[in-house]
TrEMBL record, chains A, B:
Keywords: Kinase, Transferase. This is ATPase/protein kinase. Gene3D superfamilies: 1.10.287.130, 1.20.5.170, P-loop containing nucleotide triphosphate hydrolases (3.40.50.300). The gene is argK. GO terms for molecular function: kinase activity. SUPFAM superfamilies: P-loop containing nucleoside triphosphate hydrolases.
Amino acid sequence: MDIDDLAKRVAAGERRALARAITLVESARPDHRAQAARLLDALKGAGREALRIGLSGTPGVGKSTFIEAFGMFLIERGLKVAVLAVDPSSARSGGSILGDKTRMERLAREANAFIRPSPSQTQLGGVARRTREAVALCEAAGFDVVLIETVGVGQSETMVAGMADLFLLLIAPAGGDELQGVKRGIMEMADLILVNKADGALKETAMRTCADYAGALRLLRKRAQDPDGYPRAMTVSALSYDGLPEAWAAMGALAEWRRAQGYWAANRAEQARRWFEEELRAALLARLENDPRIRGMVADLGDSVAAGETSPGAAADKVLDVLDR
Amino acid sequence: MDIDDLAKRVAAGERRALARAITLVESARPDHRAQAARLLDALKGAGREALRIGLSGTPGVGKSTFIEAFGMFLIERGLKVAVLAVDPSSARSGGSILGDKTRMERLAREANAFIRPSPSQTQLGGVARRTREAVALCEAAGFDVVLIETVGVGQSETMVAGMADLFLLLIAPAGGDELQGVKRGIMEMADLILVNKADGALKETAMRTCADYAGALRLLRKRAQDPDGYPRAMTVSALSYDGLPEAWAAMGALAEWRRAQGYWAANRAEQARRWFEEELRAALLARLENDPRIRGMVADLGDSVAAGETSPGAAADKVLDVLDR
């Protein structure tokens, strides 16, 4: 594969080149990994920066419909929008986020939109690396907004928040009791809580739910990177587009404030450092997998430990000795 | 420290020696780690096997009271009982499991009981290793039952189930709605669900709750290692001891069946293999921490990545190169 040519075409914003580049970073093959590293290095100088928005919400809150409406809203404003899905459950049972584009048909047809389903990797670590690299590729391809979508299942939120500039939590209108269903940890990551479906018969319920969450947010400890009035709860309707301009304005105001205060750059720097540390740990652990001799040794020693012939610690020492040779 | 002498005294069942040995395996100091490995190796031949019981339950279900009652019940039957607490939250804010023995005053005074609070380590991996080693030490010291106690917060249950022969879930009597509060994943690990506080005014509620859980258990897919009638839900009272003989009989019958079918040995073999693999990964990652030169290099490269001068992947490669030299 001609990596320099691919880099040029990604930088020119060619969607097919971007799709191929993401397929490359998703591959675990060592030669693909090397090519992916070269590609990312070649595109590093582009200096383009997108607004990276993390978005979470449990199944049923209307995430796809919201993303389609929000995406169309941004495109109408002349912006280019990429959507990356992160679904740790996709390896099993098809996952909660559909693996095709049919759920956002309208957005998928737009020339200024790029939608990428979740890769079907089992390990969250692998998904994290791939998604971070895909975000970098979308940025290099000139997308203005990169939406990183995930489901409300805990660890994947932390991961997505760890690569986003802003984090949105999408909520369905519901009775006060169900407020407890959102994990406190996820609420604490949110910059904006958007109560969806604020239209028709559900509008009043949505407004009450929004007020409930606004109250709950006031009880959380204020973070340094929050200006007055943030984190915020707002209502939106993916159906009527009501509230989308206000939500977008709130994101813009927050992003601008954070840029001015230096939190934006500090956050990105910290995220890059963590990315490096995770990359390093993953590369170190990959040594146990990549070399067939080591893999065989681990399997044999595992049998010996299982049979009670070797202690787990002594077996580990033996592998380390061979790795050191 | 004279490791051979310590091993001898642990094998003789001396409680103070056991406490010292556990303190040794809890230490992260490299020289202590080496001594701990020697100690565990010296005790490996003892060939003693305890019944390892994992026990989980959210705060408020009466876990301490149950453990004290169950422990006294076992001691009255001539058995030696060790209790190890695993509380991943103990590093922050004191944790949910109290760090002293005062909560089980009666049991703590018994010559045939040994109670050890949770170590205050931040990383679950570190706690896992220490607990597995502490279990092995308690076994070598001749304890018949080792109770490994944890709180209902997800990952720590998986860890405890990964080192236990049986897994108990303790539940408080409650209305049907609250059944949903127990995570499905934790229910799927349980061999026995014990509804506590089945006495006085709560007795009827406890029986209803027990029936609810029995119904829920029937909806779960049957595991190969479950004989007919398991997993089971039963009521117990830590206050009146009602149900304790039945619960203990149910544990014994399950353990016996699994021994006869080969699941017991297969499970222990699989657990030992996983222990080895985790040990190996931890030892490999420790190389990033142990050598001050590498630690400094990681910090410097982290600064460079944060400043945007080096890409995360390139920085990781540099560290790996030095580790290889």
